[in-house]
Amino acid sequence: MSQRDEEGTAQSWIESQYDQWLRTPEQVDAHWQAYFAALEQGSSAPRSEEGVPGQVAVLRLINAYRFLGHRVAHLDPLERHPLPEVPELTLGYHGLADLDGLMVFETGSLVGPPQAPLSDILTRLQRSYCGTVGVEYMYLTDTAQKRWIQQRMENSPEILEPQVQRMLLVHLSAAETLERYLHTRFVGQKRFSLEGGESLIPCLNILIHEGRAQGIEEIVIGMAHRGRLNVLVNCLGRLPRDLFLEFEGVHETGLTSGDVKYHQGFSSDVDTPTGSVHVALAFNPSHLEIVNPVVEGSVRARQDRRGDTQGEWVLPVLIHGDAALSGQGVVMETLALSQTRGFRTGGTLHIVINNQIGFTTSDPRDTRSSTYCTDLAKMTETPVFHVNGDDPEAVVRVLRVALDYRTTFHRDVMVDIVCYRRLGHNEQDEPMVTQPWMYRKIQALPTTRQRYAAHLIQSARLTQEEADAMIEDYRAALDRGELLESIVRPSPKVPYAHAAQWTPYRQADWRTSADTTLTRARLTQLTERLTLIPEGFELHPTVRKVVDHRRQMGEGMLAVDWGMGESLAYASLVEEGYGVRLSGQDCGRGTFSHRHAVWHDQNRQRWDAGIHIPLQHISPTQAPFTVIDSLLSEEAVLGFEYGYASAQPRHLVLWEAQFGDFANGAQVVIDQFISSAEAKWGRLCGLTLLLPHGYEGQGPEHSSARVERYLQLCADYNLQVCIPSTAAQIFHLLRRQMLRPLRKPLIVITPKSLLRRKEASSPLEEFIAGGFRPILAEVKETIDPAAVQRIVVCSGKVYYDLVAEREQRQIENIVLMRLEQLYPFPHEEFVAQLACYPAAHSVLWCQEEPGNQGAWHRIQHYLVRHLRPDQHLSYALRPSSAAPAVGYLNLHEEQRRAFLEAALTL
């Protein structure tokens, strides 16, 4: 090794030690801890062990710029505030101020020559980290990733080719001209203009073209309102004439409600020099960042369909607003999903349209508690590239680095385009009312397009006439309602090869039936696979007992319980080619320890070994079965599963709440997507929610799945709300969800104590014959219909309480009817059951929920509609309450006795 190599190795080692000391001082040798601490305190020119004056201080200076250079980068186009003074970025702070700028130092890992004059080192650092780009990445623990970013940032700036510069101006011209055209043609209409952030358009178009060159074949974008219409036209190629029709009040037919134009989604195939890219913009309601997990779920489904395990072909792109990014918790939840096994998508490219303001009335000092709106990215060690939106060339360079980083490391990366909003929150809002200082600056500022055109003209890259022609050509195309191929070129309309096939489900009627039964031989075969213990695999005694019982259930020796009925449904579906994806907190075992879909070898020697999932070993040709114990999130995980189900019609996608009321934390997903996406956007989805419910005396928080909320959302046959009360019912219900050509969200109110209740188990014959029954009536042979005076209608666990109480009292003139499907209401079946009891003048609804909750208020008008003139309707339930349940066990029991008494007393 040469002397120079030895010196370079020594300097690299010192630098690595210093870098380690900055992160975790205690992991550095005590001698070096003291040495580096002295550097932090001293102001004189330090000496390294080798006696080179200031050498370690130079390494310290380099690290300071890597850590803090972004603080003095020129990021704000408005230049509202002076750049802060950061002492760590000065030579004096490091004791280097008195040294000759021509003094040569080792540069360590700084990209460039191994030795350089101090002045050159400082210039390189300022150029790399303090221009119109600032980067935060030194918190990454992976050295390879940090070195990779350093290589890209510290190399000489990329010189854009003249054709790329011209293309940038063409796209900026399109972005600006479209907004101005809409502003003058449709005066006063909301469009949530992109003006001030036009650099987004060339940024996305570069992403589409260069992503395709790297092998990306599909891009799914999620974004809120701002700039959405511009992206639709200038990036995805939606025809301007179609957009204009929406401004004129012409809407798509066939939707029961529809939605405003700036919530609409769209997809197209965009031509690039290296091939076509399928680009989809997800539908998104007004809840801004809620689209994030939906996009991730959709992307994961598309990746799974292709076998794209690394995310090489399908790319998620999330476009955020600055205030929403830092203000909405679903962003953090979605980031937390990014590297987990069940939810990873190979890295998401995040783009922030940073207006430096929230709603028009917001003061930036009130929108967050962190320095940057992007600071939550540090939670997942996501690098952040801040870039001045008025420097479109810098935006392009940063986009290329971010895309390459994602492609190389398959991790999230964030591009923060610092810009401004030229108009108010919307076009009817006057920003000067609350932000006069900021908007005086904006009004005096040339547009991004004007600035860049002037730069190209000054550098003789094009003439004023050519720049003006770009606007004229684009405006002429808008007048024709057409696209310009120089902006975006959609591929000819041909079926997308990897698209999910929804056609079979478009016209299906909810009353369509399906044969959900299985033969005895098939049930036996499935049971053998479900209960086969791998050789040498040691089950926990409790699980072994469960498996032994399931073996007997499959042989008809024991009645089938809930857990086995559910497992048989999943096993039969994957064998028939339907994938099953189940996620939720503790869903592998089941919150109430009923499922045991995942077995753990009690003798395993490693944390990542000794796992067996029987449902993944049903058949060599089976469809996938995936079970995920999710992180402690409801909103993001349910949003993810909705996105997955909306892109994968041949998967039974289930989300299980730990307790039914945990779904409250995901109410936005339920309200804005699950219940209404078909009415607003024509989007079908077969997502299934499993919500444990039942009043067991556990208090207000874990009793109610809030049945009333789902029933309130029911209209236009948008949902299925079911409360199955037997193992056979859940078996047939889950199979029906896939086998019949209907894809509607299914809300299943599942039991807790009922999971092990003997009476809720079903004989094997009920799996071989029959199907899901919306109403379960009592067996006619055991009841004299002529003697029945009251029909008690109920759902769920309360039926078994009523049965026990009726038997104890030896009552023979009251019959019980279980309503297993609350919506769509089974009108014909209900009328047929009423007709069986001609002497029953009393019909009573019984529920264990309080009167202002549960199904009573939503169900009573259905019951009244079908009563005979000689019948009257009454009810038995808990008193109305502000809380879902009482917290005192004695009061719980008192209320239970009261409503049972009322139900069974004529």
From TrEMBL:
Keyword terms of this UniProt record: Glycolysis, Oxidoreductase, Thiamine pyrophosphate
One GO MF term on file is: thiamine pyrophosphate binding
Q: What is its EC number?
A: 1.2.4.2
The UniProt record lists the Transketolase-like pyrimidine-binding domain at 560-757
Recorded catalytic reaction(s): these are:
N(6)-[(R)-lipoyl]-L-lysyl-[protein] + 2-oxoglutarate + H(+) = N(6)-[(R)-S(8)-succinyldihydrolipoyl]-L-lysyl-[protein] + CO2
The top EC class is oxidoreductase
Listed Gene3D superfamilies: 3.40.50.12470, 3.40.50.970, Multifunctional 2-oxoglutarate metabolism enzyme, C-terminal domain, TPP helical domain
Q: What cofactor is needed?
A: thiamine diphosphate
Listed GO cellular component terms?
Answer: cytosol; oxoglutarate dehydrogenase complex
A single GO BP term for this record reads: glycolytic process
Q: Which family does it belong to?
A: Belongs to the alpha-ketoglutarate dehydrogenase family.
Function of this protein? Answer: E1 component of the 2-oxoglutarate dehydrogenase (OGDH) complex which catalyzes the decarboxylation of 2-oxoglutarate, the first step in the conversion of 2-oxoglutarate to succinyl-CoA and CO(2).
Name of the featured protein:
2-oxoglutarate dehydrogenase E1 component
